[in-house]
Amino acid sequence: MCIFCKIVNKEIPNNTVLENEEFLCFHDINPACKIHVLIIPKAHYDSFDVTPPSVMKGLTAFTHQVAEKLGVKQSGYRLITNIGNDGGQEVPHLHFHLLAGERVGRLVGEK
Ligand code: 5GP
Ligand code: ZN
């Protein structure tokens, strides 16, 4: 089972921001800026590349709720999803990084 599935199953603790039946948002263990959270479907999909559009629709609405809860709608935020080796994906379970709380650099995560 992947590490994020273990988080969903509460085998690994997490600092939850928002949760519903299908989706979970929690703080990244190694934040890249002031606010760095991860947004995932509870069901396992290896990456964005294999995630059905129907799931992305729900994830979009959930992400709007996360931005509201974090209070970053006005100030703005960045969403990133890494896909596969060249995308720099480390955890093989679809996740969006939401970065906020300060002006983020042009690129995040240099080589
Ligand atoms: P990726 O490189 O796959 O796009 O991002 C994986 C992210 O997951 C990284 O930012 C990393 O800090 C985070 N991460 C890895 N393991 C854990 C964990 O056990 N708990 C939390 N909260 N974040 C994790
Ligand atoms: Zn998983």
UniProtKB/TrEMBL annotation:
GO molecular function: catalytic activity
Domain HIT: 3-111
PANTHER family, per the entry: HISTIDINE TRIAD HIT PROTEIN (PTHR23089)
Catalytic residues as annotated in Swiss-Prot or TrEMBL: H95 (tele-amp-histidine intermediate)
CDD domains named among the record's database cross-references: PKCI_related
Span of the annotated motif Histidine triad motif: 93-97
Record-linked InterPro entries: Histidine_triad_CS, Histidine_triad_HIT, HIT-like, HIT-like_sf
Protein's UniProt name: Histidine triad nucleotide-binding protein
